[in-house]
Structure formats: C-alpha cells, structure tokens
C-alpha cells in the first residue's frame, strides 16, 4: 500500500523535462517531506502524485493500482483517494463560490447525494475550525488563513487515503499554519492518511515529517 511515483519524467516544454526518472513513495500513516532547491520540480512532482499532471513516462501507483488518467478523466475511486492543497488558496478557488460551495465541490462532482452534502460540509468546516457563519461568504470576504482552512476541508472531503500539501502553510501566520498541520496530523493518526508535504520551511518539515526526500536537481 502506498502512493508512489515510479520513474516519472515530465515537463512543460517538449524535450525539456523538469523531472527525469523521479521516484518517491508515501506509505499510509506516513508524512514525507519533499525538499530541494527552488525550481527543481517539487510542485511538479506534487501535481503528478495528485493526479493533476500526466507523466510523459513512468507512472503513479495508488495502493498498487496504476493511475493512467489524470484530473476528471481519472476514475472516481482514484480521484477521491488523493487530496491536494496548494500554496495560494485564492488561486485555487472559484471566486464566485461561497465557502460552502467550495467545500462541497468535490462531493458534488464525485456524485455525493445532495441530501448528504450539507451535513458533510458542516462536519468538514468544524474539523478545520471554521465558523459556520462563514459558509455563505465568498473568497474575497475572508482572510487567507480562513480560505486555506476551507481548501483543506475541501481536500479532506472524501477522506482521502493520501494528501499532497504543496506549500500549504507558506502564506499563513504561524498559528494558522500550526493549526492546519494539526488537522492534517489528526487525519494521519486517526485514519492512517499518508502525506506528501512540500515546503521551503526546513524547520517545519524537521518537526512535521517522518522522513525527508531531497530532490537533487
Ligand atoms: N505551468 C508551468 N508551465 C511552464 N513551466 C512551468 C510550469 N510550472 C513549473 N514550471 C517550470 O518547471 C520548473 C520546476 O517548477 P516547480 O514549480 O515544479 O519547482 P519547485 O521545486 O516546486 O520550485 P519552487 O520551490 O520555487 O516552488 C521551473 O523551471 C518552472 O519554471
């Protein structure tokens, strides 16, 4: 059981791979910190493992199953098994959506019955310590920290087996950052979720991660 990148080669421009045969594996219940110099491809590898970017060659294995398609083309059981959070919550939400719509979005697109969605959204925002009266607000009406909490709630909507955190805390104040890491750690401890944490903050990863993977360019 693991979320694993096997010999992944991928880039954004033809014949200029950013990753060339990259490998990383995350076991259930494990927090793996991904470090390396700026531009070495950490976010790219995170996107590949989150099934958002298809490798040119190599593969992603999710608990032994090879993920051959990405984004909405990936089968639902794989899409819902991996959650992802990004550095900038503002760039990762639809500004027209309320907080409730943002958190509900993966549930709706994954086919959750509408009668269950509202209750689950309340459960999720409670989990990330967001007040219920924020549910009707839009992104521009709440702080970065509150919006990142909503994004973490969205990432946890389907109780993913793995979570990819790409610089989740780097735009946040220290206390919000610590609170979000605690929420993630609770999911690790309670359900055995595996985490890939990308961060520039070595001190954070030294305390958060069980082990570090250094991407040598
Ligand atoms: N969408 C994109 N289109 C074109 N090039 C990209 C894109 N995303 C990343 N790159 C390029 O790919 C390389 C690796 O970027 P990536 O963001 O994966 O690295 P990183 O290690 O996460 O960097 P940082 O630590 O600075 O966030 C960089 O040269 C970057 O400019």
UniProtKB/TrEMBL annotation:
A biological process from GO: transmembrane transport
Q: Does the keyword ATP-binding apply?
A: yes
Q: What molecular function terms (GO) are annotated for this protein? A: ATP binding; ATP hydrolysis activity
Query: ATP-binding among the record's keywords?
Result: yes
Say which family it is in.
Answer: Belongs to the ABC transporter superfamily.
PANTHER family (UniProt xref): D,D-DIPEPTIDE TRANSPORT ATP-BINDING PROTEIN DDPF-RELATED, TRANSPORT ATP-BINDING PROTEIN
Protein name, UniProt field: ABC transporter ATP-binding protein
* Taxonomic lineage: Bacteria, Bacillati, Actinomycetota, Actinomycetes, Jiangellales
């Amino acid at each position: 059981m693991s979320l694993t990148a096997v010999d992944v080669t991928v880039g954004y421009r033809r014949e200029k791979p950013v990753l060339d045969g990259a490998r990383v594996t995350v076991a259930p219940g494990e927090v793996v910190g991904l470090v390396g110099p700026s531009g070495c491809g950490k976010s790219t590898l995170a996107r590949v493992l989150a099934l958002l970017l298809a490798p040119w060659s190599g593969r992603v294995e999710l608990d032994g199953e090879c993920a051959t398609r990405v984004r909405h083309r990936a089968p639902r059981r794989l899409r819902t098994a991996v959650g992802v959070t990004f550095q900038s919550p503002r760039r990762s939400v639809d500004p027209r959506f309320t907080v409730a719509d943002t958190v509900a979005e993966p549930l709706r697109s994954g086919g959750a019955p509408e009668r269950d969605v509202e209750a689950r959204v309340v459960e999720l925002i409670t989990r990330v310590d967001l007040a219920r009266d924020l549910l009707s607000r839009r992104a521009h009406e709440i702080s970065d920290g509150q919006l990142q909490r909503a994004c973490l709630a969205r990432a946890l909507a389907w109780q993913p087996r793995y979570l990819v955190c790409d610089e989740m805390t780097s735009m946040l104040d220290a206390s919000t950052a610590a609170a979000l890491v605690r929420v993630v750690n609770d999911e690790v401890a309670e359900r055995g979720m595996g985490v890939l944490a990308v961060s520039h903050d070595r001190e954070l990863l030294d305390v958060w991660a069980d082990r570090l993977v250094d991407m040598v360019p």
